[in-house]
């Protein structure tokens, strides 16, 4: 432990940014129950944060109540702890800014930041591909956040290609309901036979979200939020929900509409990013 304490700063904090799905096409269901899909991931500026420091065991502190077996930070830490032969521990403190069950990838991003942060803290020397493989076991979106760039994803979300997206700001509404991805993907009415498209076609024409119709049917709050936001432009739902969003070319435009959002909904404006602030923060540590 002495050697690591000499190498690693006593304590550091890393961001765990959110994401939006700009489209989500379900192409089919695999024999293992997972779905083949295509999606465009947009990294956004709003983020959770995790602080790291060396300890004798694994300890996770969170500012919201999450059971350890459901906490992806704890599960990610245990995965690397076992891989590193468990010679040293860590204390992790998670501060949540991203809503839970909202389609913004908060839990997956937290897991990715945990993997990246502990890889640095414990000086494991694992590369991005190795961390993504570990992350894929924890959740389909975890590899995206380890990858660290807005991306086009295929397979179950693990096949990633860098996307260079235009500068935009997003007004994001939180309808006030939490949606389980498993519930949406299990639904008998889910479209599972969309035709594959190319990245070039998406960039020119865009695409829809096959999960949106089911979410709107099961959760009237999502339907109501989309109907309201559609008054200002082509609004979309991210992932399996529940958050809905609308893109603007400037923060000023987004903030003007934000001021009109009914009080019953929480809303915020977030900048779209091509590169994750997580990787930039780790680079500054090195």
Global geometry:
globular
Q: Kindly report the CATH topology of the largest domain.
A: Ribosomal Protein S5, domain 2
Secondary-structure element order, N to C = HEEEHEHHHEEEHHHHEEHEH
Number of domains: 2
Helicity range: 25-40%
User: What would you report as the Rg, rounded to the nearest angstrom?
Assistant: 19 Å
For the record, the CATH architecture of the largest domain stands as 2-Layer Sandwich
Mean pLDDT: 94
Highest CATH level, the class of the largest domain:
Alpha Beta
Give the tally of β-strands: 10
Termini gap: 19 Å
Low-confidence stretches: none
Helix-strand category: alpha+beta
Number of helical elements: 11
**Major β-sheet annotation:** 10 strands, mixed
Strand content: 25-35%
Question: Would you mind describing this structure in some detail?
Answer:
The structure is a single chain. This protein has eleven helices and ten strands. α2 packs parallel to α3. The longest helix is centred in the middle third of the chain and has 16 residues. The relative contact order is 0.19. The model has no long low-confidence stretch (mean pLDDT 94). The protein folds into two domains: 174 residues, Ribosomal Protein S5, domain 2; 105 residues, 2-Layer Sandwich (Alpha-Beta Plaits), CATH 3.30.70.890. It is 34% helix and 28% strand.
